[in-house]
Amino acid sequence: MQNNPSFSQNLIPIVCLDIGGTLTKLTFATKKGFCLKCQTKKELKIVNEIEDYEIHFISHPNSLDKLIENLEGIGFIVDGKSYIQNFYITGGGSFKYYDQISNYGKIIRINEFDALKFGFKLLDSIKYKNTYFTFNNGIEYLQLTASIYPFILVNIGSGVSILKFDNEDQFARISGTSLGGGMFLGLSHLFTGINDFDELLKMTKQGSNAHTDLLMDEVHLGFQSPTRNKNEKHVAVSMGKLDQNTNINKSDLVKSLLYMTTYNISQIAFLHSKLHNIERVFFSGHFIRNHDETLQCINEAFSYFSKLDQQNRHPYFIKHDGFIGSLGSFWNGIQSFKQGNH
Predict the structure, then answer these.
(1) Per-residue pLDDT in tens (0 to 9) along the chain, 342 residues
(2) What keywords sit in the KW lines (predicted)?
(3) Which of 9, 16, 96, 244 has a 20 to 30 A CA-CA distance from 133?
(4) Structural contact between residues 319 and 44, judged by C-beta atoms closer than 8 angstroms
(5) How would you class 85 by CB atoms within 10 Å of its CB: exposed for 0-12, middle for 13-18, buried for 19 or more?
(6) Structure pTM?
């Protein structure tokens, strides 16, 4: 069923985008209780008791046609006419489609790191339930009553940025690495011919890195591992068995790449946690996507490095991972929208 102008009047007329290297994340709001006709990530919807709107989320591979299709499906564009006042855009790919979408509304660009800051500011201000969690073979939500600050944020997209947040206004980028989701996708494509990120994540559920990686108990050969556990199953050498096995399952290769990516990132994150003496480390970014295998790999790796250093630190995750930047864009947009209507 096609949308009509009266339908569009139930939308807050701002579109908030976080355009990364491969994915576009879209955040928008409707009046409370309004029934959308398009498909959104319903499990992420935010309903704030003190506001008269609710926040919705959509993601799709970078494509101008797909973006316009989604805007039409939501009801922002009807019969070629736009009901969008402003686009609030962030991300490394925020320059994409600039000329084309400027025909549908004014474009306001938000610095990528400022967008992350504002995204956490929004989440912290509303104290939305079941937002932050730990993962060890299952989700355990944190029931926070105080502020989340200070913390370190490890934002994993195509690349990785590591930021230190002292409070809601003061933050700095302290590190990063090029070995992120883009590397995982690129090498996985090279090994398997598959270029669909979601399909690759499904393959990791079927694979075992024990067939491709050398593990601690295999390397130490009876000697004690660094954690003094002779049955240590953590990765010692990524892809260390490829020269021994000629018939490797593709799912095993993808699982090994997932371990290789997460172990490298987790070790860098732990070292910065120790260096800056901040125990709370959040992992976010669309590479994670609340995917069980990815969460478990990061938890195993971070906890392993913590144990090696006789620490007891654990990684934390965010329900809205991958959408913190677009939420920050939304925070900017909704503040301006409220001011313009008063």
Answers:
(1) 455 556 678 999 999 999 987 789 999 999 998 888 899 999 999 988 888 899 999 999 899 999 999 999 999 999 999 999 999 999 888 888 888 899 999 999 999 889 999 999 998 887 667 889 999 888 998 877 778 899 999 989 889 999 999 998 899 999 999 999 999 999 999 999 999 888 999 999 998 888 888 888 777 555 444 544 544 567 888 888 888 777 789 999 999 999 999 999 999 999 999 999 999 999 998 788 788 999 999 999 898 888 888 787 889 999 998 899 999 999 999 999 988 765
(2) ATP-binding, Coenzyme A biosynthesis, Nucleotide-binding
(3) 16
(4) yes
(5) middle
(6) 0.82
Q: What is the rounded CA–CA span in Å between residue 69 and residue 54?
A: 22
Long-range pairs for 39-45: beta carbons < 8 A, 24 or more residues apart: 39/73, 44/319, 44/320, 44/323
Rounded Cα–Cα distance for residues 127 and 28 (Å): 19
The DSSP string of 225-267 is PTTS-TT--SEEETTTTTTT-SS--HHHHHHHHHHHHHHHHHH
Q: Does this chain's domain 5-114+324-340 share its CATH topology with 181-318?
A: yes
**Enclosing H/E stretch for 152:** strand 151-156
- Does domain 5-114+324-340 bear CATH number 3.30.420.40? yes
Contacts of 175 (CB under 8 A, 6+ apart): 161, 162, 268, 272
> Is there a contact between 35 and 74 (Cβ–Cβ < 8 Å)?
no
AA letter at 274: K
